[in-house]
Specification:
- The complex is a heterodimer of chains A (about 425) and B (about 120).
- Chain A is mostly helical.
- Chain A is built from 20 helices and no strands.
- The longest helix of chain A is centred in the N-terminal third of the chain and has 28 residues.
- Chain A is elongated.
- Chain B has a single domain, classed as Dimeric alpha+beta barrel (Alpha-Beta Plaits).
- The longest helix of chain B is centred in the first third of the chain and has 19 residues.
- The radius of gyration of chain B is 17 Å and the shape is globular.
- The relative contact order of chain B is 0.32.
- The chains are: A mainly alpha (about 425), B alpha+beta (about 120).
- Chains A and B meet through loops of A and helix 2 of B.
Chain lengths: ~425, ~120
């Protein structure tokens, strides 16, 4: 029982506090790598000491103090290795004083405004465009989200050594290329990059969940929602952050009905809506409402409104498909990707019948609007479903076979096998 | 920090002849950009290069000796046409300077300087 309490306290301080501590140390020392390593050292120390001595009264204060000393230890070791012990010791003394002066222990928690800026700088740094997308994801989860390297590696199904190397390389680029911890003048553009990273983390958790044979300790869906909610606190004037948060919460509310007991996909219209998380839908509605009051439309809000139409429809038949088709038309105007166009055609088919959807797909294909989707099973599966509804089972069968040939995920392959079998 | 800004662009365009008003019009924004670098304390060095048809590549191959060949190191649509060596607070400032180059289309590589023997 006591072990479980300590374990929970360790996880909580890692997830909820270590990012704050790291952000503060990164600014104080002007060295992100040092801050990251020191926080990791402190977490290791907590895992060693807390089960014996008990959880301290103020875990974040404990973490800050220990991480700070770990950082100073690391600097001292580095300094003596470079035979600059004397000069370094003098600097350390100054650094120590600066730390005790107002930012030690409990006081950091009261220091909310500068802390918020530190946390924003840190997340912007992790998602800096000079880093590649994989590195942005890994750094965000580790430095902002407080996940360990093994946790991130297992969540993304990559070898731990690969992920560790990715983080080392990214931190080296931050240091050597001089990527700053700062709040840029072009904040909107940089926030877009952060949102893309958070949505990617969310989708990784959302889309791959059904394929897992192993129990994963880290739930990327929950981590993405938590990180997005915390970004929304830091950027209360950015409607798109709330847009993404609402979108994630709508999707999460029906996560448990997305697959059946065998891990197979269940289509939206066949899902058991009584098992959708109504409380989560209510919260998502409120967040979306808050976003839309700011009158700054954007692609995440549009997608959230669409997800909200589905989440708030009591039965599949209640879905307002013509409203959704209109929203997709707006979304195509902002983000004209082939996948968005495909979804638009689906909505049009639902609103105006399969012939309208098929005509739209043919037209898009003729104009190159779906280029790049030839190897995407959903294009063929969508066409197959529409052909079936249009009373053309032979054409549908051919399209299902194409979809089956391009599907990668086992759950999707099983689903398409069943559709094909039903046509025999 | 110090950064090398390497400017790669399509070199197949007709440049106006020096001395013409068109040439002056083309150069004016570059002069302004150079002045901005000087006034902001960013300037270390910069140069515009002759087109790659003037380039010669020297390959040294260890014990296998060396060859001297006509042309640039790599043939591609965009070629390095010039560079700036600048002083900037951090990568964001260096990127800002790169974006301020008076060019509509170019691929600009920004790299920190590791070591410069003539640095102060």
């Amino acid at each position: 029982m006591a072990d479980a309490t300590v374990e929970a306290a360790l996880t909580r301080v890692a997830r909820e506090e270590s990012g704050r501590v790291l952000a503060l140390l990164a600014r104080r020392f002007g060295d992100v790598d040092l801050a990251d390593e020191s926080v990791q050292d402190a977490l290791v120390e907590a895992a060693r000491v807390w089960p014996v001595q008990g959880v301290p009264a103020n875990p974040p204060g404990w973490l800050l103090t220990v991480a700070k000393h770990k950082a100073i230890d690391r600097l001292r070791r580095a300094a003596s290795a470079q035979r600059r012990t004397m000069a370094a010791a003098r600097d350390m003394a100054v650094e120590d004083v600066a730390f005790e002066d107002g930012a030690g222990g409990d006081e950091m928690i009261d220091d909310e405004q500068p802390m918020a800026d530190d946390r924003l700088r840190l997340v912007l740094l992790c998602c800096h465009p000079a880093l590649d997308r994989d590195a942005q994801v890994a750094l965000t989860l580790r430095m902002v989200g407080g996940l360990t390297t093994p946790e991130i590696a297992s969540a993304f199904l990559v070898p731990e050594a690969t992920l560790a190397q990715r983080i080392v390389r990214a931190k080296r680029k931050i240091r050597d290329a001089g990527i700053p911890l700062s709040i840029p003048t072009d904040l909107d553009g940089r926030v877009d990059a952060v949102l893309a990273v958070l949505y990617l983390i969310f989708n990784e958790g959302y889309l791959t969940r059904s394929d897992r044979d192993v129990v994963v300790r880290v739930d990327l869906v929950d981590e993405a929602v938590r990180l997005t909610a915390s970004l929304a606190e830091l950027l209360p004037d950015h409607a798109e952050v709330d847009g993404l948060l609402a979108l994630e919460m709508f999707h999460r509310s029906r996560l448990s009905t997305r697959t059946d007991a065998l891990g197979d996909l269940v289509l939206l219209e066949q899902q058991d809506r009584t098992r959708w998380d109504l409380e989560s839908i209510g919260r998502a509605n409120a967040v979306l409402h808050r976003a839309m009051r700011r009158m700054q439309p954007g692609p995440y809000q549009l997608q959230a409104i669409i997800a909200g139409h589905h989440a708030n429809a009591r039965t599949a038949g209640d879905t307002d498909w013509s409203a959704i088709a209109g929203l997709y038309r707006q979304l195509v105007a902002v983000t004209p990707s082939p996948v968005v166009r495909l979804n638009h055609a689906v909505a049009v088919a639902m609103a105006d019948g399969p012939h309208a959807g098929l005509a739209m797909l043919d037209d898009l294909e003729a104009r190159g609007g779906l280029d790049g989707l030839e190897r995407y099973h959903l294009l063929h599966a969508t066409r197959a479903e529409l052909l079936l509804r249009a009373g053309r089972p032979d054409d549908a069968k051919r399209a299902f076979a194409l979809a089956r040939a391009t599907a990668v995920a086992p759950a999707e392959q099983r689903h398409l096998d069943r559709r094909l079998a039903a046509l025999d | 920090m110090e950064y090398m800004i390497l400017i790669n662009s399509d070199e197949n365009y007709e440049s106006p002849a020096p001395g013409t008003p068109e040439f002056e019009a083309m150069m004016a924004p570059w002069m302004a950009f150079n002045q901005r670098l000087i006034d902001g304390g960013h300037w270390i060095a910069g140069a515009s290069l002759q087109p790659t048809m003037t380039a010669t590549t020297v390959h040294k191959r260890g014990d296998a000796g060396h060859t001297v060949t006509d042309g640039p190191y790599a043939e591609s649509k965009e070629q390095m046409g010039g560079f700036y060596l600048v002083r900037a607070a951090d990568l964001d400032e260096a990127i800002e300077l790169a974006l301020a180059l008076p060019m509509a289309a170019a691929s600009i590589e920004v790299r920190p300087v590791a070591f410069r023997p003539d640095a102060a």
